[in-house]
Amino acid sequence: MSEPILAVSGLTRSFTQGDVTIEVLRGVDLTVGAGEIVALLGPSGSGKSTLLQAIGLLEGGFGGSIRIAGKEAAKLDAHGRTLVRRDYLGFIYQFHHLLPDFNAAENVVLPQLIRDRTRAQADDRAESLLTALGLGERLTHRPSQLSGGEQQRVAVARALANRPALVLADEPTGNLDEATADIVLAEFLRLVRHEGSAALVATHNERMALKMDRVVRLHEGRLA
C-alpha cells in the first residue's frame, strides 16, 4: 500500500488567555490517502480551522508530526514550509479571497507563475479549469462582476491550478445560500476527483459531509 498523502500524528495546539490554557487540539491522528476526499465535521469553534492551519503549515505553535507526501513538514523552517505549500497543497476558504484587480483567469494564472509555469501554460490551464466549472464565458470578469457562487468557483480553480496532491478546504460553501452551496460543492467534488487530488474539507454541515468518501468528527480536540 502506498504511503498516505497526509499523515498526522499526536497533533496538539493550545492557547493561553491570562491564567487559562485552552487545549484546542489534544493529540489528533489522521491519515488521508491519495485521491481520497475526507470531510472534517464539527460545530463552529470545535477547532476545525486550527487543524487545517496546522496541516497547511500556516502558523507555528503546534506539537506532533505532520507528514505531507512522505515529507515530515512540521519542523521545517519558513522557507521549507513555503515550498511544501507551493508544491503539494491547494487552499479554499469560506470567503474566496480573490485578488480584486485581477480577472477570473488571472486569479488562476498567478499561482502557476509562482510555480514557474510559462504564461501560455498557465493561461491554458486556467481556461480549462474555469470552463470545466461553467465559467468559460466569464474568464475576463473581475470578482466584483461575479456572483458569490461564481467567485467561489474561481477559488476552486485557483486551488487546483498547480495540481496539488492535497486540497484543504475550510467551510468552502459556508458563505453561500443552500442551493448555490449544493451546486458549488458538487462541482468541487467532481473536479477534485477528475484531477486526482485528495481533499480534507472542514464543514459543520452533516448533509454535505456525507457526500464525501469518509467523515471524521472533531470532538473535544480529538478525531473520531
Structure description:
The protein has 224 residues and is an alpha/beta fold. The chain has a single domain (34-59, 90-223), classed as Rossmann fold (3-Layer(aba) Sandwich). It has seven helices and ten strands. The chain has a six-stranded mixed beta sheet with strand order 6-7-8-3-9-10, with helices on both faces. Strand 4 and strand 5 form a beta hairpin. The chain is globular, with a radius of gyration of 17 Å. The mean pLDDT is 87.
Note the main attributes of this structure.
224 residues, alpha/beta, globular
Task: Write a brief caption for the model.
35% of the residues lie in helices and 27% in strands.
**Overall SS class:** alpha/beta
User: In CATH, what is the homologous superfamily?
Assistant: P-loop containing nucleotide triphosphate hydrolases
CATH architecture assignment name: 3-Layer(aba) Sandwich
User: What fraction of residues sit in β-strands?
Assistant: 25-35%
Residue-averaged pLDDT:
87
Could you name the ranges where pLDDT drops below 50 across 5 or more consecutive residues? none
Number of domains: 1
Over the alpha carbons, how many angstroms does the gyration radius reach?
Answer: 17 Å
Characterize the largest beta sheet: strand count, sense, and whether it forms a barrel.
6 strands, mixed
CATH class category: Alpha Beta
- The total beta strand count reads 10
User: How would you name the oligomeric state of the polypeptide chains in this document?
Assistant: single chain
- With strands numbered from the N-terminus, the spatial order across the biggest sheet is 6-7-8-3-9-10
Order of helical and strand elements: EEEHEEHEHHHEHEHEE
**Number of helices in the DSSP assignment:** 7
Query: What percentage of residues falls in helices of 4 or more residues?
Result: 25-40%
- At CATH level 3, the topology is Rossmann fold
How would you describe the shape?
globular
End-to-end Cα distance, whole Å, is 23 Å
